[in-house]
Amino acid sequence: MPVPAAAGRYCPCGRTGHAEAVASGPAMTARYGGGTGLPEIVTRAGDGDLRATMVLAEGATALGQLVGGLVNLLDPEIVLIGGGVAECGGAWWETLCATARAELLPPVVGVPIRHGRLGGSAAILGAARLAWEAR
Asked: Can you tell me the distance from the alpha carbon of 93 to that of 114, in angstroms, rounded to the nearest whole number?
């Protein structure tokens, strides 16, 4: 899905401008640089590292814009954010929610945005369940 912050940035799909190019864990890790993983970037942001804070805010803002647009389009009852990046916590989560809320149209302004309980394990657990049910 395209987001303004990703304009000109390459996505793993080979195109440019997609949310994955700015809001994914690998994208934020690459943007920060120095071979530092996402958990360390989160820790550094919490310790006041401005570059880490900026990278996380940029990713959260891009994802928030995308979530807000999708809520406006699809009118869901609830939005669950999961995956490893959702574990970024505090400032990342606040930025994501505030940005998404700023995008919402009046009919959907009350849609709750929640953290998925399975976190970074959601995809693998879903795949395991599908495999179990298919046997």
From this structure: 10
Backbone torsions φ then ψ of 8, nearest 5 degrees: 80, -5
Torsion sign over Cα 127, 122, 116, 22: negative
Cβ–Cβ under 8 Å, residues 115 and 86 = yes
Per the document, the length of the chain is 135
CB 113 within 8 A of CB 79: yes
Q: What pLDDT was estimated at residue 97?
A: 97
Structure letter (DSSP) for residue 33? -
Task: Count the alpha carbons within 13 Å of 125 in the hemisphere toward its beta carbon.
Answer: 9
Residue 72 CA, chain-centre distance (Å), reads 17
Q: Which residues contact 115 (CB under 8 A, 6 or more apart)?
A: 80, 81, 82, 86, 93
Q: pTM, whole model, 2 decimals?
A: 0.88
DSSP single-letter state for residue 11: P
Residue closest to 72 by CA, chosen among 94, 102, 115: 102
